[in-house]
């Protein structure tokens, strides 16, 4: 038997992480780099991407772009490929939550949410898949949510996008896994990120969220490291079309 630790070695792999400027996207980029991958961070804030690349070191590059701009997708892929070559791994961590109540949802908020959270992961993956097919190896990791299966106040558009991510992940697996490309999703629980800042600033609300989990605590950034590395490596070679909830057991109750 080979050393099981080698299953998690990403040396020689190229990873693209959207939403890499902050939160769970940034954490994913750091983890993949420390596992040996060369990482391209994609986001809209150059200064934050510069900080990420400085922390990772020479095996990191960045692209500033709006991943939801479908008209610029071809140019975006060319810019990504120009850094380290075509990615073997793509993590779709970019996202937005407008938190509009059902009666107040606007067309603009709805379109923005669906474009970034659901449409962009598909079309960017579609553009990257041909190179993965040529290699016979690829990893697509989408970001689901507690709202993939649960309804939260102010979450109509966000919940619709994340419910769609679960089915999109299954459809991607059906379409592409025969070519050696796995497609899975991670569903985070309550983690302290920019997207959930308002939740964690309300200490009573944060405590209530923690109490609803089996583990009686909210997520810590390091809780995401193992699941991300698993789904991006050879360790998950026979896992596809799945949503892995990393939520301390919130959805188990």
Description:
InterPro entries: KR_dom, NAD(P)-bd_dom_sf, Sc_DH/Rdtase_CS, SDR_fam. It comes from Ruegeria spongiae. Residues 13-189 form the Ketoreductase domain. With 253 residues, this protein is an alpha/beta fold. It has a single domain (10-246), classed as NAD(P)-binding Rossmann-like Domain (Rossmann fold, 3-Layer(aba) Sandwich), CATH 3.40.50.720. Helices cover 42% and strands 15% of the residues. The chain has a seven-stranded parallel beta sheet with strand order 3-2-1-4-5-6-7, with helices on both faces. Helix 1 packs across helix 8 and helix 4 (107-135) packs parallel to helix 5. The longest helix is centred in the middle third of the chain and has 29 residues, at 107-135. The model has no long low-confidence stretch (mean pLDDT 96).
Chain-wise SSE layout:
Layout (H helix, E strand, L loop, with lengths): L13 E5 L4 H12 L3 E6 L2 H11 L3 E5 L8 H12 L4 E4 L14 H29 L2 E6 L12 H21 L4 E8 L8 H5 L1 H9 L13 H8 L10 E4 L7
Parallel strand pairs: 1-2, 1-4, 2-3, 4-5, 5-6, 6-7
Helix pairs in contact: 1-8, 4-5
Pfam families: adh_short_C2 (PF13561)
Organism: Ruegeria spongiae
Family: Belongs to the short-chain dehydrogenases/reductases (SDR) family.
Descriptive key words:
7 strands; 253 residues; 42% helix; single chain; Rossmann fold; alpha/beta
Short note summarizing the structure:
With 253 residues, the protein is of the alpha/beta class. Helix content is 42%, strand content 15%. The chain has a single domain, classed as NAD(P)-binding Rossmann-like Domain (Rossmann fold), CATH 3.40.50.
């Amino acid at each position: 038997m080979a050393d099981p630790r080698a299953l998690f070695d990403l040396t020689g792999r190229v990873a693209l992480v959207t939403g890499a400027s902050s939160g769970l996207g940034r954490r994913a980029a750091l983890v993949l780099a420390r596992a040996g991958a060369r990482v391209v961070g994609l986001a809209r804030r150059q200064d934050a991407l510069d900080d990420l690349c400085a922390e990772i070191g020479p095996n990191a590059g960045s692209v500033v772009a709006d991943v939801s701009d479908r008209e610029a997708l071809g140019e975006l892929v060319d810019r990504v490929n120009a850094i380290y070559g075509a990615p073997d791994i793509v993590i779709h961590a970019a996202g937005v939550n407008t938190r509009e109540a059902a009666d107040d949802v606007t067309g603009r908020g709805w379109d923005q949410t669906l474009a970034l959270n659901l449409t962009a992961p598909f079309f960017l993956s579609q553009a990257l898949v041909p190179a993965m097919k040529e290699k016979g190896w690829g990893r697509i990791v989408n970001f689901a949510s507690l709202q993939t299966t649960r309804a939260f106040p102010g979450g109509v558009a966000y919940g619709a996008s994340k419910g769609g991510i679960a089915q999109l992940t299954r459809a991607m697996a059906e379409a592409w896994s025969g070519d050696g490309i796995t497609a899975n999703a991670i569903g985070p629980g309550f983690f302290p990120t920019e997207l959930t800042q308002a939740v964690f600033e309300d200490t009573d609300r944060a405590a209530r969220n923690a109490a609803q989990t089996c583990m009686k605590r909210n997520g810590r950034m390091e809780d995401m490291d193992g699941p991300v590395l698993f789904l991006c490596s050879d360790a998950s070679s026979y896992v596809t079309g799945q949503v892995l909830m990393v939520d301390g057991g919130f959805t188990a109750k």
